[in-house]
């Protein structure tokens, strides 16, 4: 009976071991399946999170791009307005140029005429400077003031000559050299 008991215990241990093996294998399958399901759930959740992050990033990038385009357009519009203002100013200034050039031409012509007139006057002065000194005719004796007369009082007129004044003027005029315009 001892042999039977040992065999019966051995068979029972074998049976328990087989049952434990089967239970361990079943548990292992359950754990593997649960782990696979959990990994799939986590992967799906991660993929969904990644899609949401990507969508948010794309939306933010689109907003940033639109804002950048708006700012660039505003800057370009401001530059175009400034260039248009400058162009208008230049056009207005250019429209007045012909008149100013005509005025400048007239001023230059007048300056040239002035230079020619000054040259002619300088030549005339040089010609006159080269002539002998004019000798004025003697108009008679002048009486010196008397010692008791007031120095601030005008000198007494010279005594009238016997020649009439018109004749005196004609005589003085004849004694003068001819005027430059009268010279040959």
What would your notes on this structure say?
The protein has 184 residues and is mainly alpha-helical. The chain contains two helices and no strands. It has helices at 2-130, 165-175. The longest helix is centred in the middle third of the chain and has 129 residues, at 2-130. The model has no long low-confidence stretch (mean pLDDT 81).
CA gyration radius, whole angstroms: 66 Å
Biggest sheet overview: none
What is the terminal separation in angstroms? 184 Å
Using DSSP, what is the number of strands?
Answer: 0
Strand residue percentage: under 5%
Shape: rod-shaped
Helix content: over 70%
What keyword list fits this structure?
0% strand, 2 helices, 76% helix, mainly alpha
Please provide a brief summary of the model:
The chain is built from 2 helices and no strands.
Element layout with pairings:
Elements: H1 2-130, H2 165-175
